[in-house]
Amino acid sequence: MSVRTGRILPRRFYQRAAAIVARELIGKVLVKGGTSGIIVETEAYLGENDLASHSAVGLTKRTQVIFGPAGHAYVYFSYGMHYCMNIVAHSPGVGDAILLRALEPVSGIETMRERRGASIRDRDLASGPGKLAQAMGITLEDYGHDMTRGNFVVREPGVETAFEIDVTPRIGISKSKDLPLRFVLRRAAI
DNA sequence: GTTGCGATAGTCT
DNA sequence: GACTATCGCAACG
After folding, report:
1. Packing angle between helix A109-116 and helix A129-136, nearest 10 degrees?
2. Smallest Cα–C1' distance to nucleotide B6: which residue has it?
3. Which of A6, A38, A153, A182 minimizes the number of CB atoms within 10 Å of its CB?
4. Residues 95-114 of A with CB under 7 A from strand B
5. pLDDT tens figures, A129-148
6. Higher confidence at residue A89 or residue A4?
7. CB–CB of A63/A50 below 8 Å?
8. pTM (global) more than 0.90
9. Spatial distance from the CA of A81 to the C1' of B6 (Å)
10. Is the C-beta atom of A63 closer than 7 angstroms to strand B?
């Protein structure tokens, strides 16, 4: 099954504040190899002044990429068992990033099921940060990858459709938890 | 449908 | 040595 998609999002798309990029990533298509999915949930992390952000601890070996140029992948290992996928935003030195929290699978669904488990339902294949990374086969090997090149990119959707975006506080953090920086594609009423 | 909890390892203090 | 940008399962209703 082939799925029509539009152009790769250019570097300048990412060279803006994380909150704006996070909102505009909703409805775009994450593509890696033969797998792809519509981005339906993101969170913005705002750099050094945002205590919930990894960049708040400053420049370390782990956080180097967040302080680099926009449009690169920041992947980290969490809770001893999950990878989480972020894309760096804004300008070098700022430390902005967007966490990709959930996808709606589009293609390569059988590949995703091989990675996630044979009995997993489509809607649960990538319905969380750790699940998204597992379904797409994202690991530390993707740390620093340029998301405007290669076979791991974000594209415009093939067909533009109207949708609404809900904005809520971020999930699973203990600091700065009240900021409205989580963006969710609102499913059309069935 | 919901809530509660244990697993597990890298990173920083 | 504490903490974590999580998940899946088990128990319940």
Report:
1. 110
2. A79
3. A6
4. none
5. 999 999 999 999 999 999 99
6. A89
7. no
8. yes
9. 13
10. yes
CB contact set of A151 (below 8 Å; sequence gap of 6+): A31, A32, A33
Q: Is A53 near strand C, with its CB below 7 A from some atom of it?
A: yes
User: Which residue is nearest nucleotide B11, judged by alpha carbon to C1' distance?
Assistant: A62
The amino acid sitting at A68 is G
| Residue A62 Cβ < 7 Å to strand B | yes
Three-state secondary-structure class, residue A16: coil
- How does pLDDT run across A10-67, given as a tens digit for each residue? 999 999 999 999 999 999 999 999 999 999 999 999 998 899 999 999 999 899 999 9
Q: What angle do CA A9, A89, A56 make, to 5 degrees?
A: 160
Task: Give the three-class secondary structure for A111.
Answer: helix
CA at A43, C1' at C8: how many angstroms apart? Answer: 23
Strand B contacted by A186 CB (< 7 A): no
Contacts of A157 (CB under 8 A, 6+ apart): A5, A6, A27, A28, A29, A38
